Amino acid sequence: MLYPNGTVWVNYRVRVKGPCIMDLSNFPMDVQTCNLIYESFNYNNQEVRMRWINSNPVYAVSEILLPDFILINITATRRMEKYPAGMWDELHVNLTFERRCIWYFMQAYVPTYLTIFISWVSFSLGPRAIPARTMLGVNALLAMIFQFGNIMRNLPRVSYIKAIDIWMLVSMTFIFSSLIELAIIGSKVKDMENSQRPKKPHCKN
């Protein structure tokens, strides 16, 4: 639409599928910001000027329901980018998402906590119940390793440590420490039994 003062009104409806670079260091309690940029392809700001129509130009028509994220904020800004061919106006839309972490708590944090608690039950069995304590500790460690592998299989591969990695490694350290304690106690009990065993008398000819 062309107005008498030279203003051109152009209306487009587009469906965009854009990439979003995520930082998963705090996964699964992370907050992600995705950036969408609008700019003219052929014309710099000497020919086309772009600006938002008002102070709140971007909004969601209806509540957006995503399985893994909650849309918590939408911000719109205007910037000017310098290219070799001149200056271009850019309209930025920042979409801030917060991850729904209840699934990860139920599938990762609660089971690992219970596994650690089960491994600590062996402390109440007494120092002489070595077979039962060994079975509890080894089974708890194997269950933790299986849970860790199952969780990591469903996550994106990144080269840095995530919060859930630290949780799982610390959890396995607790269970492994209980096995170390079991080995130390078993050695002490064996030494105590050997010291209390009556010595055979030596026969002199």
TrEMBL record:
GO terms for cellular component: plasma membrane. It is a multi-pass membrane protein. It is found in: Cell membrane; Membrane. SUPFAM superfamilies: Neurotransmitter-gated ion-channel transmembrane pore (SSF90112), Nicotinic receptor ligand binding domain-like (SSF63712). Residues 109-198 form the Neurotransmitter-gated ion-channel transmembrane domain. Keywords: Cell membrane, Ion channel, Ion transport, Membrane, Signal, Transmembrane, Transmembrane helix, Transport. Residues 1-100 form the Neurotransmitter-gated ion-channel ligand-binding domain. GO terms for molecular function: extracellular ligand-gated monoatomic ion channel activity; transmembrane signaling receptor activity. This is Neurotransmitter-gated ion-channel ligand-binding domain-containing protein. It comes from Litomosoides sigmodontis. The lineage of its organism: Eukaryota, Metazoa, Ecdysozoa, Nematoda, Chromadorea.
